[in-house]
Amino acid sequence: MAESEYQRLKDFLLPFIIERFRSTAVNDELRKSVENIAKAFLWCIVSIQNKMHLTEITTISVAEAFYERGLYNLLNELDIGTKKITMEGFLLVLPGEIHNWLLFLHNNGQLKGVYDRFTGTYEIK
Question: In this model, does residue 113 exceed pLDDT 70?
């Protein structure tokens, strides 16, 4: 059941995410990282039994994505246009991005639970 739910959400969400990071100013490493985080994010939300906060979802998604890729340090730099940001800098803005993903899924009736955008809580009802 979780695998079919994951696949359904992946087919729906990844085109949205790819479009957000489609710019030629975004390098392949950042795109790859975002896609891996998105896949881990989807596994996280299909596995929630009760409720979870945005910060917890973000932490688990990043940790799982990095574990799966074998990234054990955050010393990489990512290119966005002519700017270089550290992985740590990227991680600071990631909760906002995952908030956007949850809102996109919620607003399109794709979540089995409810995401409260003002408290950052996703709850299965």
Answer: yes
Cβ atoms of residues 98 and 58 within 8 Å: yes
3-state helix, strand, coil split of the chain in percent (to 5) is 60, 15, 25
**Close Cβ partners of 101 (under 8 Å, ≥ 6 residues apart):** 13, 16, 17, 38, 41
Instruction: Output the six-digit token pair for 121.
Output: 């809580």
Q: What is the pLDDT of residues 33-46, one digit of tens each?
A: 889 999 999 999 99
Write down the pTM of the prediction.
0.85
Q: What is the mean pLDDT of the chain?
A: 87
Find all residues with CB under 8 Å of 119, minimum gap 6, and list them.
53
Residue 53, classed as helix, strand or coil, is strand
Give the bridge partners for 121, in sequence order: 53, 116
Is residue 87 within 8 A of residue 39, CB to CB? The reply is no
Would the pLDDT of 20 be above 80? yes
Instruction: Indicate if the alpha-carbon torsion angle 39, 21, 55, 52 is positive or negative.
Output: negative
